[in-house]
């Protein structure tokens, strides 16, 4: 299979559609999208778009993945035995799985009319939601571990709070008894220990351990002797807290590790549903439709518009503005050639590019901007459009066109669509005219459908 993706600006189109994706996974799928090699796979993709549109419009069923991050790193860590996920990674997976479960519950009542979509989410087990719920109860949205994550953690944090209060009260008493030696009546921290600010000139008046000076050198931060034991106890409690937090995070990670196959299904479902929804959103904004893949190799486009010329403008608030003249035409096995003649800047090349790009879109599983679209399952879409002049290869405009067309003749595998812009141009008009006719006739005899523009 061979396709003129660069000539027809397929990558630029994918970038345009990918703007409607809400997740990094959805955007990545557009970057990897290419024309399908399997017709059943293509029909499945188009059916998913049609079902999503119907659910949105008829049942007001929809889903949103706004704010979700790519959880691939978190999934990779789950595959490493005894590795522990950080809180933000746990929340990342929880959010993805929550949204996948919500999408499943939204689609399930519509199984009869959305069987393609249901197959995407069917494998997500309900038990996954219970695991995710436990994570959400133990982790705060900020990523901190909730006090109620375990009875032991709650007990330790109560002890830390009490110890901190006692230590603060003790240091405040020291400051009151130290009179003019104190720089500010504020208990502060240095090296993770509670200290008091003492004037450098009065350093000897307060017995204790110095933990450094202020930037001006006027203040020394002292840990009084009577606070050392209390500070040690506080550090001991904080160590207990860290160990308990680590234990909780490991336990939560292990719960997810047991659900790894289900999580991978959920991540895949979110990526696919976001991919589909982006196509549907593109269809809504560009007034595109789900194309029909014809069985008899008929190409029929009614009111077709080139999507890269039809992009909704910012000045119109993102709404579609009808500025492009639509084109309609039909090619069949019996009438497989269409010749477009006219003056420069008359739109001949736009027709060729519209036919080529919309055909690529259809066989890639994308909606196409048209009122009606019937497109064959092409095995090759080949285009010779534009000036291929190459100074480095010592090729003139004419020679470069001939070189490109020669390659197209080798790559042409029916059913195919061949687009020729000014075939035979760049040489003697009479000879060029004859050459153009011969080129078109050659592709016709190979079973290709041909759209060619000409001045002749």
Main attributes of the structure:
alpha/beta, MutS, DNA mismatch repair protein, Chain A, domain 3, Rossmann fold, 3 domains, 49% helix
Short description:
The chain has 456 residues and is an alpha/beta fold.
Polypeptide structure, described:
The protein has 456 residues and is α/β, with parallel strands linked by helices. It folds into three domains: 2-125 and 259-283, MutS, DNA mismatch repair protein, Chain A, domain 3 (Orthogonal Bundle); 151-237, MutS, DNA mismatch repair protein, Chain A, domain 3 (Orthogonal Bundle); 290-454, P-loop containing nucleotide triphosphate hydrolases (Rossmann fold), CATH 3.40.50. 49% of the residues lie in helices and 14% in strands. Strand 2 and strand 3 (193-199) form a beta hairpin. Helix 1 (10-18) runs antiparallel to helix 2 (24-32) and helix 3 (39-59) packs across helix 10 (260-286). The relative contact order is 0.12. Mean pLDDT is 89; it is low at 388-394.
């Amino acid at each position: 299979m061979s396709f003129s993706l660069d000539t027809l600006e397929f990558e630029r189109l994918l970038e345009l559609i990918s703007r409607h994706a809400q997740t990094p996974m959805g955007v990545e799928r557009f970057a990897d999208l290419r024309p399908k090699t399997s017709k059943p796979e293509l029909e499945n993709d188009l059916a998913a778009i049609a079902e999503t549109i119907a659910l949105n419009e008829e049942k007001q069923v929809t889903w949103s993945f706004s704010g979700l991050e790519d959880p691939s790193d978190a999934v990779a860590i789950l595959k490493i035995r005894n590795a522990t996920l950080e809180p933000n990674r746990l929340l990342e997976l929880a959010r993805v799985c929550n949204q996948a479960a919500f999408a499943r519950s939204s689609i399930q009542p519509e199984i009869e009319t959305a069987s393609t979509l249901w197959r995407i989410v069917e494998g997500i087990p309900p038990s996954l939601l219970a695991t995710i719920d436990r994570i959400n109860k133990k982790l705060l949205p900020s990523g901190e571990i909730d006090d109620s994550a375990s009875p032991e953690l709650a007990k330790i944090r109560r002890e830390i709070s009490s110890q901190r209060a006692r230590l603060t009260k003790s240091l405040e008493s020291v400051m009151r008894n130290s009179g003019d030696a104190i720089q500010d009546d504020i208990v502060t921290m240095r090296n993770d220990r509670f200290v008091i600010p003492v004037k450098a000139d009065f350093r000897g008046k307060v017995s204790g351990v110095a933990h450094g000076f202020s930037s001006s050198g006027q203040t020394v931060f002292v840990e009084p002797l009577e606070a050392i034991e209390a500070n040690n106890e506080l550090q001991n409690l904080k160590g207990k807290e860290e160990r308990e937090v680590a234990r909780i995070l490991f336990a939560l990670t292990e719960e997810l590790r047991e659900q790894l196959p289900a999580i991978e299904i959920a991540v895949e479902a979110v990526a696919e549903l976001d991919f589909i929804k982006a196509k549907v959103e593109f269809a809504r904004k560009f007034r595109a439709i789900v194309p029909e893949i014809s069985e008899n190799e008929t190409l029929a486009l009614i009111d077709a518009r080139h999507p890269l010329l039809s992009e909704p403008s910012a000045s119109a608030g993102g709404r579609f503005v009808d500025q492009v003249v639509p084109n309609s035409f039909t090619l069949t096995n019996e009438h497989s050639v269409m010749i477009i003649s006219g003056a420069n800047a008359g739109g001949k090349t736009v027709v060729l590019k519209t036919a080529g790009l919309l055909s690529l879109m259809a066989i890639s599983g994308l909606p196409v901007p048209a009122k009606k679209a019937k497109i064959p399952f092409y095995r090759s879409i080949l285009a010779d459009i534009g000036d291929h002049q190459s100074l480095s290869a010592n090729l003139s405009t004419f020679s470069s066109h001939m070189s490109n067309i020669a390659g197209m003749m080798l790559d042409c595998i029916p059913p195919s669509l061949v687009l020729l812009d000014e075939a035979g141009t760049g040489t003697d008009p009479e000879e060029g005219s004859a050459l153009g006719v011969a080129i078109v006739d050659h592709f016709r005899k190979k079973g290709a459908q041909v759209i060619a523009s000409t001045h002749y």
